[in-house]
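User: Hey, quick favor. My workstation is busy. Could you predict this chain's structure for me?
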Amino acid sequence: MASTLISPMVDYYNDEEELDSVDDEDDRSFRGRDSEEDTEDASETDLAKHDEDDYVEIKEQMYQDKLASLKRQLQQLQEGTLQEYQKRMKKLDQQYKERLRNTEQVERNYIKEKKAAVKEFDDKKVELKENLIADPANSDWLRLPPKLNGPLLYLVQAFFFSLLNALSH
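Assistant: No problem, here it is.
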C-alpha cells in the first residue's frame, strides 16, 4: 500500500530537475514572505524609532520652551517688571503702609496719654500742695494709723513738713 502512494508522487516528479526547480520555487516564495515580513518588521521598527524620535524631539522642544520661559521670567524679575513680583511688592507696600499708620497712631496715643498723665500728676501735685498749705494739721498726709506712735510719728511728720517746704518753694 505504501508503494502505491509513493509511485504517483514519483511519477509526478519523475525528473530531479523538476524537483530542484520546485524546491527553488518554494525557497523563493518562502524567502519572499520573509522579505515581506522583514519589510513590515523594519517599517514597524522605523515607525517606532520615528515615534520615539518625535517624542524625544517634542520633549526637547518642551524643555527648551520652559527654559526660555524661565529665563524670560528671571530677566523680568531682575528688571522688576514681572507681573507676579509687582503684585507681591504692591501687597507688601500696602502692608508696610498700614503698619506704619498703626505705629504712628500708637505713637500719637502714647504721647496723648503721657501728656494726660503728666497733666494729672501736676494737677494732683498742685492740689496736694494747696491742701497742705491750707490746713497742714487736717491733711490726709498726716493721718497715720494708731500703731505709729512715738518717735516714728515725729519722723513722718517731719518728713511731710520738709516735703511741704520743698513744694512751696
